Amino acid sequence: MKLRKRGYVGTTSTEMSQREKDNAILAREAAAEGFVLLKNEAQTLPLKPGTKIGLYGAGAVRTIKGGTGSGDVNNRYNVNIYDGLKNAGFEITSGDWLDGYDSGYMQARESWKAEIFRKLKEECNGNFFEAYSTTPFSMPAGEPVDAEAAKADGAEVGIYVLARIAGENADRRDEPGDYYITEEERAQIAALCEAYEKVILVVNTGGLIDLAFTDEFSNITAILQFVQAGQEGGNALADVISGKVTPSGKMTDTWALDYMDYPNAAYFSHKSGDVYREEYREGIYVGYRYFDTFDVPVRYSFGYGLSYTDFDIKVTDVSKKISSKGRPSFSVSVDVTNIGATYSGKEVVQVYVSCPQGKLHKEFRRLTAFEKTKLLAPGETQSLELITDLYHLASYSEEQAAWMLEEGIYGIWIGNSLSEAVLCGRFRLNEDKILVQCEHICPLKEKLEEVQPDKEKLEEKQNAWIQEANKEQLPYFRIWAENLPTATIIYQELQDHYPGRAGEIVDQLSTDELIALATGDPAKDQGASALGSAGQTVPGAAAETVNVAEKDPYNVASIVLADGPAGLRLRSEYQVREDGSIDGGDFLDGFENGYFAEPKEPTGTVYHQYCTAIPVGTLLAQSWNLDLMKKLGQMIAGEMNEFEVTLWLAPGMSLHRNPLCGRNFEYYSEDPLLAGMMASAMTLGVQSVPGCGTTIKHYACNNQEDNRMGSDSILSERTLREIYLKGFEIAICNAQPMAMMTSYNLINGVHAANSYDICTKAARDEWGFEGAIMTDWTTTTDSTAGECTAAGCMKAGNDMVMPGDIRDHASIRQALEDGSLDIRELKRCVYHTVKIILQSNQYEDAVSYEDQFK
Ligand code: BGC
């Protein structure tokens, strides 16, 4: 295997490359495909280009492209909504207000910066990241809107862009300015509604916000869930506003009527007053599983989204089948027709299943399959077959430590949202069946009261649909438990040797070399190990692995890891000094494109590394488009190759448990199947390119950002498996990501990073994970993390301690010496790491990771 020679990555040219131009087109397409049209009355949308628009709100000119922290991308430009609408030929009548907004914004940014530096000194002991992340920037509302002037401006419609910023290491607050609108914003919206008959609300926030105010203003005739759309957001919005693109996004979360309607609203994170213990008392009833089961009315249901056209979904067949992977399944075949007269559009067909309420209580319905149509012209029909693997209907029995299907009648629902789904068939399973026999993992150390639905009420609901199905004589089939296979998991023993070239290398390495390979490269860190700073060969990359085994005969490359998920996170520029060494800038250059750093004179030749800022995870998932995700993955991998990055620290796929989680924007959904499918598609895309891999994260139960390193997620094994591990399981089984990253938090008293159950039993033994596992950054060295050690990672099967610190080396060496760590445990970890490194794009003959599993 021949190692590739590393050069300086990026370009000295300031011209936009063809790759940048091509990728901008895809970023724009992806954004437009994910926006959800929540409301469209009085034929508000689309608007003809040329229409005069009164445009207001913080996000109009300072459109937020994504969240802060490691999920931020240092890209070349952002098209704001103001420019996007102008580019599309709309006439904006509120130019003065928008220009005025900008100067107020700049002042607010400067005060914010000053506050961060004050905190840095006075409260945060010099820890910039702490000061920065716990002081989220609050978008100023701007000047009041003059309703009289607006009335007279000749605009036919008003647009108000509500904007919020969030990021890692801090949860959001259910307060005005965050979850709620402020009085200033309310007054502006009221003025807009006074001035214009039709007002479009654009929601430019990473997570959900309160929309109850929209009920008070009947002139808000359209609402668009824009989320945060990457560098082409403004153009993409204009595409939808103008009707060039028909909206086809669907909600990946339930939008409640009131924050307090979320089942964990009162005790989530800081709300309980205790950020150390997080009791998952809602159990499996997360998101729509709660609202649908407990009959709590919602504002917009899971899976919901409007179009400019209408579709008819006709069920043509419901029957059992064996899937192409040879798995027992059932399929629903549909003909989807665009029955509108004017607009082409795409529809998302969703299958939900009601499982029998047996010994285990269950959610009323769960998503089991979905498909998006191609672009259908008016009158055009597409036939789709949606296949549900029966395993996705299983529930986890704690009593039996097994995934099982319970006997009874299963109802099959189909629709273009959960709220619109109709029953289309059912089947009977003759008796209980264990599909997978496991062992227990992550035991609860204390009693936890979980919410339970009213069994009688649920049975009534169940009987009602069964009767309806009988009356309608809906398709019916039987499944015989004896025809379904049972798998029994074999949990691995420690091995003396491992197979293949990686196994041979590990056998020959010295203990020191093994220890070095168990962590990222501390020499590259130089004390700046927070996000986006520990890579030097490719400035702005998050870390690199060591080169101790790069020599012959091992040829184990040092590989580069860079963040995501909204693109590839590198510094936008660096310099090469006269002696050929790289000046990647200092720590502060890594944040917000260097906004906090003092301007410096160039010390050498400037290299640019412009990567594409794509929409945030939630917006991507709202597309429900797996092909699009795959294409985006390929696009990102192209940039990874250009910048010599092997592992992308993305996609993020933790579950949306509560809308206040500061990092929800990076993640996909409240539903594990949807999250798992999206991560699979993204991974398949990235890994179809030789030498590139994804790192699915944060595994697992990373649902809160306040005290993220010290918070303990306390939950039942069933909830853990059915809700919080499920998406990871799906991504691994479908796509074999090259890597995964553990989360900072503890799970039932054990750090995820140090949990053998999480890293080895679940990921490897149960799901067959073949790649390498790594810690999140500084999990083992940050004092707020408490007892989480590098040696503990090796024991758990957490292969790479990141970004790497000499204290980690000491921890592993000490544990080997005192016998608490077996050298075979260390070798097992290094084997996993070497195995993926050998597949890296650092070799001239890299083969796509995907191909190796064909
Ligand atoms: C984040 C990770 C990220 C890492 C490296 C951490 O703060 O939690 O998601 O990949 O930094 O930048």
From TrEMBL:
One Gene Ontology MF term: hydrolase activity, hydrolyzing O-glycosyl compounds
Highest rank taxon of the organism: Bacteria
SUPFAM superfamilies reported for this sequence: (Trans)glycosidases (SSF51445), Beta-D-glucan exohydrolase, C-terminal domain (SSF52279)
Domain Fibronectin type III-like: 347-418
Keyword hit for Hydrolase: yes
InterPro entries (UniProt xref): Cellulose_deg_GH3 (IPR050288), Fn3-like (IPR026891), GH (IPR017853), Glyco_hydro_3_C (IPR002772), Glyco_hydro_3_C_sf (IPR036881), Glyco_hydro_3_N (IPR001764), Glyco_hydro_3_N_sf (IPR036962), Ig-like_fold (IPR013783)
Keyword terms, alphabetized: Hydrolase
One Pfam family this sequence matches: Glyco_hydro_3_C
A biological-process GO annotation: carbohydrate metabolic process
Keyword Hydrolase found: yes
Family: Belongs to the glycosyl hydrolase 3 family.
Protein's UniProt name: Beta-glucosidase
High-level lineage: Bacteria, Bacillati, Bacillota, Clostridia, Eubacteriales
